[in-house]
Amino acid sequence: MTHPRLLLADDHRIVVEGLRSILIPEYELVGIVEDGRELVDAAKRLKPDVIVADIAMPRLNGLDAVAQLRKEGCPAKVVFLTMHKDATYAAKALEMGASGYVLKHSASTELLMAIRAALSGGTYVTSEIAESMRRAAETRTASLEAPALTPRQREVLQLFAEGRSAKEVATVLHISTRTAENHKARIMDVLCISTTADLVQYALRHGIIATD
């Protein structure tokens, strides 16, 4: 019997090891990656049936990684496994094309249900935040959205907020140092902020980088 192919993205090795015992009986674990850029590359190369990904990952967060994959036509089902309890994160995840949203402390009881729902064409949101997500949808709070920023600007924002230099950002994105600096200046102008510290705080508030 052929098991569905699964790609796991999480930069916490202890979490990954714990998930193996949950996933391996039902799924073929084709790869494990530790950041969003590796996730994009691995998904295109390995062509998994389902992706289980954290939101808070270095170099490129899970939401933006999945947005890139969707833009490029990746058909894999996506289930986010995260510590973020805020319903607006779940709403954002579904907007990005995810089929599931599970809190990490519920993984042992809910992750397999979420994956099965995703593979059958359904949607699963962890029970702890499903009701608050419905309430958030009614008020339509957009606290995590940054509509004024382009996908490339969000990438640049994350890298600078992680403490990388303009040269390092340029290397990751295959652009010139001057272009990286120009992106940063434009981002700060759009967001009406004046310091790198403000940039970091914005990225933290909007889930672009992890709090840990």
Automatic annotation (TrEMBL):
PROSITE patterns given in the database record: HTH_LUXR_2, RESPONSE_REGULATORY
TM spans (from-to): none
Q: From the UniProt record, which GO molecular function terms apply?
A: DNA binding
Q: Where is the HTH luxR-type domain?
A: 142-207
- UniProt cross-references to InterPro entries, sorted A to Z: CheY-like_superfamily, NreC/VraR/RcsB-like_REC, Sig_transdc_resp-reg_C-effctor, Sig_transdc_resp-reg_receiver, Tscrpt_reg_LuxR_C, WalR-like
| One Pfam family matching this protein | Response_reg
- Which SUPFAM superfamilies does the protein's record reference? C-terminal effector domain of the bipartite response regulators (SSF46894), CheY-like (SSF52172)
Q: What is this protein called?
A: Transcriptional regulatory protein DegU
Q: Which organism is it from?
A: Anatilimnocola aggregata
Domain Response regulatory, residue spans: 5-119
- Positions modified as 4-aspartylphosphate? D54
Q: Cite the entry's keywords alphabetically.
A: DNA-binding, Phosphoprotein, Transcription, Transcription regulation
**Domain of life of the organism in this record?**
Bacteria
Tell me one GO biological process term: regulation of DNA-templated transcription
